[in-house]
Amino acid sequence: MDSKWDKLLAVSALVIAILIVLLLNSCQKESNTSFAISSSETITIDSTKFHKEPYRPQFHFSPEKKWMNDPNGMVYYKGIYHLFYQYYPEDIVWGPMHWGHATSTDLIHWNHKKIALFPDQLGLIFSGSAVIDIHNTSGLGTKENPPMIAIFTYHNMEIEKAGKLNTQSQGLAYSLDEGETWTKYDKNPIISNLVLKDFRDPKVFWNETAKIWTMVLVAGDHAKFYTSKNLINWELQSEFGKNIGAHGGVWECPDIFKLKVGHSQEEKWILLISINPGAPNGGSGTQYFIGDFDGKSFKTDQKDIKWIDYGADNYAGVTYNDAPNGKRIFIGWMSNWLYARNTPTKNWRSAMTLPRELSLSKVNGNYVLKSNPVEQFKKQQVSEFSKDLISIKTEEKTTFTYDYFNQSELQFKAEAKNLKLVFSNNVNDSLVINYDAKQKTFSIDRRHSGIVNFEKTFGKDVHKTAIPNITSNTVDYQIILDWSSVEIFLNGGIYSFTEQIFPTKPYTKLSIQTDEKQEIRNLTINKIKGIW
């Protein structure tokens, strides 16, 4: 009896093995080349576990709970990166703004801190910046214990309800314990406003050349530059931008800093201006200007409009004051005002982009601001798969299966030819990334990427961008996917694209397609370790 069963089981196993081989051969013919990648860890979304809720980013900063938008007060001091941010602690939609607070030693792992600034009788706490007053020019600390100074916009809802324009002014708060507790300046506001509706988002920095504090803020359709000796008394010096740049919406969240051009000794000043609406892929985006700044006024001969990111979800980004080694570190809000209030999350909403180091280069004689993930991000990568060369014939495709593309990074070099990448799952969600060499365009199609119907504009269009600065015969790709986002960097950050996605299941398949012979070199697929 046992012997008969053993024979029957053996025959059944052989039949099953043959069927599997036939099935694999059939799939091989259909996809031409197939690489199956088995992760060392299967990741399961557990909605009951903190920081494991559906769509919670696993290696991007997000608030513990409730609503977040613009990054604020980004300053580095005594080995700590401080990130403040627009925060509403009562709901997952925008409300009376506070400043949330988090700290990090590496820009990747974050510690949530208690709320830093609360609304008061002067108004809500809108965006702003923070500095370390090392020489105690303000007199609010001591030289032995210099104050951390936050300068921010007050927004007075009572004045707004009364139908008046002067709803916004600039306030100051200081901390004598490195950002743990804060005291509002007792003579706020430090810059009043009588006639302007939009008058906000001060970015303050110490101008080492002029030995003076400098502020840039925005007033509707232009920027204003101020100087101060003590961070309290400010003098208006100049204005910029009324008749230059993109003006599809109100100007917001300015920043200004200086960078060397490549490895040369040439230096240029960069002015960031966020704008909503009016971005190239709809809604919110951040433009930049390259020029010169003499400590009082900014000038540029730039004619074209330049964008720091060409995706739909990188807004209100600013850079760190006093980052080590003179680096210019940028973080943006990874959302868009078109649909920010409606994204399909439950007890929290919004995340920040990966921190990025900015650099300045020249391409075809034009200045280009490049952005790349900070060096520390590499420590989160665990190699899963690598291949030196993959040759794809005309009208063929290469397919990879992997249990969790939504927490991974891909890097490879391709010829500057047509190339399409399709991330998908077994419920027909698909994210399509397409490089069109003939039209010199790059596009992201998230129309079928998962949940898209929470707002009519989210999944409406393919986001297509002209990429004239891709001038080489090859294109370097870096594609980083988290549970609800994709960030793409081309040719070392000459172009970057940031988009939110909400797949109903993780992407488990990647198809690389071409309509002409193509070689993919140095392909690596890395798992990204979570930070929570």
- What sort of overall outline do the alpha carbons produce when their principal axes are compared? globular
- The overall strand count is 35
- Distance linking N and C termini: 56 Å
Low-confidence stretches: 1-34, 37-48
Q: Residue-averaged pLDDT, rounded?
A: 92
Radius of gyration: 25 Å
Beta-strand residue fraction: 35-45%
What is the count of helical runs? 2
Sheet/helix structural class? mainly beta
Helix content: under 10%
Strand order of the largest sheet: 1-25-34-27-28-29-30
| Largest sheet data | 7 strands, mixed
Characterise the protein shown here:
The chain is mostly beta strands and 532 residues long. Helix content is 7%, strand content 45%. The chain has two helices and 35 strands. It is globular. The termini are far apart.
